[in-house]
Amino acid sequence: MATANDALNELNGPDKLELHKGRTKENGGTEYTTRMRRAVHAAAFELTLWLGRRPLKVLRAKQGGVDTALGHAIDSASYGAINTELLIALCKKQGVDVAAVLAPFGGE
How many domains does the chain have? Predict the structure, then answer.
């Protein structure tokens, strides 16, 4: 069983626990090692991150560009929100009951 001292050594010691090795495009293809401290930081960051949606104008300007996985996730959520609003607007314009259309998905 690991002790508190073992955990501290993994986080801060010279023999830090290696969780992942790889290469990144961002830093010119050089190798990197993800260690316990970075993994804990990344998990805490992702769990506490609250980001707003991007407007359609911004999404259009970004087309064809590269982004991080987080950036792609924000874009996907933004497109989903835009598509929902577009569906509602089209339903209203065509005189379709919006509540009936959205009911199978949990309603409006």
Answer: 2
With beta carbons less than 8 A apart as the criterion, state whether 34 and 53 touch: no
Residues 42 and 58 in one domain: no
Rounded Cα gap, residues 63 and 79, in angstroms? 12
CA distance 101 to 94: 12
Residue 70, token pair as written in the block:
């987080």
Question: Per residue in 46-71, pLDDT tens?
Answer: 777 788 899 999 999 988 888 888 88
- The SS3 call for residue 87 is helix
Tokens of 101: 């259309």
The reported pTM is 0.54
